[in-house]
Specification:
The protein is α/β, with parallel strands linked by helices. Helices cover about 50% and strands about 10% of the residues.
């Protein structure tokens, strides 16, 4: 086979492959349901975290392969909407989106950053909150959070967040109860202020089972390329599992508001958690009705000037 014929054959094979992939993605998209309705914690609904099956796949009837196809199929739309969000800021819009991701260790928060948010890194401000520094401890606990909020046009992503101050702080009694117990109301007021400034707040709890967490920690120990992810303190925290579940339930009960609801994402299946977060984010962005800003110059005149230049 000559070089030209070989190239044509490769092109034909690629076209056939692309056609097959496109068909699989279209089929997978048809399996998507209402993730927002299925996963939202409505205020006053009596929601119980203990009733959520961490291996469930609400609003999606496909398997792992279909989930990967659906995720890929929606990446272009997500990137487009994020670009529109940024474009509007160049015309004076103050709108932004803040995605808060909380969850127990190994519940897939990092994977969500890599597989969902990476579609438009230029318009994303992602921050992984660690233990507060001395400077941060010298300020109100919301000080570092305010400093990290997304600018207009950005998608801000918090890997852990201000909720650590009513989760780990509560479980370990780092401050007295009469201090941390007042923070739920403070957080609600803070999020109302953020929303009033133009930022839509989307809060995700990646809900993993204790058995699945153990399996993932074991994998980190078994694989040298995963040792850097392992923290011996994670085993100590497992002893406080029930305390953390109680703390998370309190967060859902007191801070899932109409303006900033929580979404509980079953996370034992990594592929599903990534798909669910993508769909929740897409639903939020679609709801903003993001249009391209109108040019503030004479387009036809500029075309003429460019042609003559």
């Amino acid at each position: 086979m000559g070089k030209g014929a070989k190239v044509k054959d490769q092109q034909k094979q690629k076209a056939a492959h692309d056609k097959l992939v496109a068909a699989e993605e279209r089929a997978a998209v048809r399996l998507l349901g209402d993730f927002t309705g299925a996963l939202r914690v409505d205020p006053g609904s009596g929601f119980r975290l203990a009733d959520v099956d961490p291996r469930a796949t609400p609003a999606f009837t496909g398997d792992k392969l279909a989930g990967a196809a659906a995720l890929a199929a929606c990446e272009d739309e997500l990137a487009d909407l994020l670009e529109r969000l940024f474009a509007q800021s160049t015309a004076g819009s103050t709108r932004a989106v803040l995605l808060v991701v909380q969850g127990m260790d190994t519940s897939g928060k990092g994977g969500i950053m890599r597989h969902v948010i990476s579609v438009n890194p230029q318009g994303v401000k992602a921050i992984a909150f660690k233990a507060p520094t001395k400077e941060e401890l010298a300020h109100h606990y919301l000080w570092r959070i305010r400093n990290a909020l997304p600018a207009p046009g950005q998608l801000g992503v918090f890997d852990r967040s201000h909720y650590e101050d009513v989760l780990i702080v509560r479980v370990h009694q780092l401050v007295p109860e009469d201090v941390w117990s007042t923070r739920y109301a403070e957080i609600n007021e803070f999020e109302r202020e953020v929303a009033a400034g133009g930022t839509t707040v989307v809060k995700i709890l990646t809900h993993i089972s204790k058995d699945e967490q153990k399996a993932r920690l074991q994998e980190r120990l078994d694989r040298p390329d995963k040792h850097y992810k392992y923290n011996p303190g994670d085993v100590d925290e497992r002893a406080r599992w029930d305390d953390y579940m109680e703390a998370y339930q309190a967060v859902l009960d007191t801070t899932s508001t109409t303006g900033a609801p929580w979404y509980v994402v079953p996370a034992d299946r990594k592929w599903y958690a990534r798909l669910a977060v993508q769909q929740l984010l897409l639903g939020t962005l679609r709801g903003l009705d993001l249009q391209w800003p109108v040019a503030d110059f004479d387009v036809e005149l500029e075309k003429k000037r460019l042609a003559e230049s």
